[in-house]
Amino acid sequence: MTGAQMVIQALKDQGVDTVFGYPGGAVLPIYDEIHQQSDINHILVRHEQGATHAAEGYARSTGKPGVVLVTSGPGATNAVTGMTDALMDSIPMIVLTGQVPTFMIGSDAFQEADTVGITRPCTKHNWLVRETNKLSETIHQAFHIATSGRPGPVLIDIPKDVQFATGIYTPKEEARVKHYQPQVKGDLSAITELVELMEKAERPVFYTGGGVINSGIKASKLLRDLTKATDFPVTSTLMGLGCYPASGKNWLGMLGMHGTYEANLAMHGCDLLINIGARFDDRITGVLEKFSPNSKKAHIDIDASSINKVIHVDVPILGDIAHVLEDLLKVWKSRGSKTNSAAIKTWWVQLDEWRARKCLSYKNSDTIIKPQYALERLEALTKDHPNRFITTEVGQHQMWAAQYLGFEDPNRWMTSGGLGTMGYGVPASVGVQVAHPDGLVINVAGDASWLMNMQEMGTCTQYNLPAKQFILNNERLGMVRQWQQLLHGERYSCSWSDSLPDFVKLAEAFGAKGIQCSDPQNLDDAIMEMLNYNGPVIFDCLVEKHENCFPMIPSGKAHNEMLMGDASVEGAIDAKGAVMV
Amino acid sequence: MNSLNLEKGSSKKSAYNLRNTTGDTIETHTLAVLVDNEAGVLARVIGLFSGRGYNIESLTVAETNHVDNLSRITIVTTGTPSVIVQIKAQLARMVAVHDVHDLTVEGPSIERELAMIKVVSKGDNRVEALRTSEIFRASVVDTTLESFVFEITGTPEKIDAFVELMTPLGLVDVARTGIAAISRGL
């Protein structure tokens, strides 16, 4: 078997049905094999970065690893952003790159780059395979590493001569993966310690994150069971939205910099903080010295390096969320399913008071579409769709989408959290739509982000992917502009997009449908037109240009120092906060 | 591998766990890291330290297990207790890393370094250099009429002291291996 044939065979053995890629000189033997088979569907993207984000969208919406195939040199370097994004958000991804032949490595050959060197810090692990005999085993190991423990991207660099040469294929079952076996069961004594704290807690809160979703559907189910049984309130990070249903009784909304008033005050005021698969990111904690000052803290995570990294916790539990929650429920039930229900009732009175502040209310307008209103209408008109998937770009629209759209299930919300990659959404929507041909896939975008990878509209057209591009167009780099208003004396340096394209004509040029809407009275009809169109749509929603995203914890401030929509923003961030991003 | 970085032999009730990891005093720790002996593994470990802003005071690496193709990297690093714990956790999660031992907290250990020191001098200084080397149990591995190369093995402090004494006696060059360390006893 040739190396190129091994690549295809190994992918098939791993159950891969889709590869996102872009051919080039150093991967031609593999593309030749792709041409001669029909089990694996290859999606030709328009840029290698698009391939990586599409693979992320595919992975995040299915729970399976995303697979990328690109050429050497620029193919590999273009994939770097997507791999870094996947590393930050723990998305399983296998990237196969071509490389110049082994005898030319190091000679500055055409399209040569030190791919394993460049991608070492942005992958969980990577390999340069110099012998065809080791190729198939390496691919199987790559799948194991990408998907076990804390998931992440891996890369296999395959020189062209290794693809041509013949060798012996190692089946999946025989690949050595032994030494990398992360611990999934939590320590029972630590779990019991947490149960003891839960039994006594007066003001507990579940602070959930992307780890719940990565752990699989069972983890979300167990979280729901646990919440129902204990009546504890639940909040979630941006990455964890959907692990507890937005319609659920105990849902406080997202927490953090643009989280809800009730979620952030619950974090600040709780006496027991239970972190389930989140990582105390700086968007969540605000200033560390003032973070949740009076609570005992527990942290369940599969990655030991996440525990005690920024916030010291009292009860660390190393393990997979589903395994730990299962044991946690067992232990809690075996001890009589106790909670301090009187105190928790009082806690809910307080939480409901905070909820009544209605922190997401905004001043609507009859004449201009407010971005919040646009998303409220999008939510109202799509929430009953049985198969709705939302992707986003990065910026104000992303935060508004997190605030105003409700997610009932995991794997329905694809967004770039840790890295904050503008240009993520269009290709991610491609990947999600490929994985779910019958799903309603909507990319909520801003005009600036959307332009960063708009070439992937060509992919939508080529493969009849009806993903909808819902652009909240404020002709600004909205989040940059907001920070400049709060922090830099309203000097709007380079945060305004002049010469935007005519999005309707652009849609037509790509073979898609274009819709523009600027009047709130017409918005519902326009959204319905988008939803009813059987094909890709670019929806140019002209919104209020200077709307700010609230609530907001200004940098350098604590959870209880939130700015609300109606507050004055002058002097909100002091000099110390200004140095933080 | 003990991923939660509890010290060897400690249990939940052990006094080891009372070590304060929230302090801000800078500690020096010697870590023994067992890794796959594969291309780029040293770059991975060094990249972790540079990428996350950790210090490396000393680093040595060599293959120590030919059968399993494993290398041992000995790293001396400094940081606050919480940074040290984080360094160990970050090392332990790397796919190429099999085991991480903190020799500084896992009970008594021995640290040794080898140095070769070239001294160029004549007359009294030459005699004094040779006499001092005997006190330090350094051996002469090369000599000309006007120079010595001493080989000395010991703790880094001992080598520092020897180098300091040789400086006025005509020291021209020092080559040091960095620290190799191993735990005492069984």
Describe this structure in words.
The complex is a heterodimer of chains A (581) and B (186). Chain A is an alpha/beta fold and 581 residues long. Chain A is globular, with a radius of gyration of 24 Å. Chain A has a six-stranded parallel β-sheet, sandwiched between helices. A six-stranded parallel β-sheet of chain A has the order 9-8-7-10-11-12, sandwiched between helices. Helices cover 39% and strands 15% of the residues of chain A. With 186 residues, chain B is α+β, with helices and mostly antiparallel strands. Chain B has four helices and eight strands. The longest helix of chain B has 13 residues, at 123-135. Chain B starts with 26 loop residues before the first strand and ends with a strand. The model of chain B is unreliable at 1-19 (pLDDT under 50). Chains A and B meet through loops of A and helix 1 and helix 2 of B.
Spans of chain A of at least 5 consecutive residues whose pLDDT stays below 50 are none
Class per helix and strand makeup of chain A: alpha/beta
* Strand composition percent of chain A: 15-25%
Number of strands of chain B: 8
Main beta sheet strand tally, sense and closure of chain A: 6 strands, parallel
Structural class of chain B: alpha+beta
Q: Indicate the percent of residues in helices of chain A.
A: 25-40%
List keywords for this structure.
heterodimer; A: 581 residues; alpha/beta; six-stranded parallel sheet; 39% helix; globular; B: 186 residues; alpha+beta; four-stranded antiparallel sheet; 4 helices
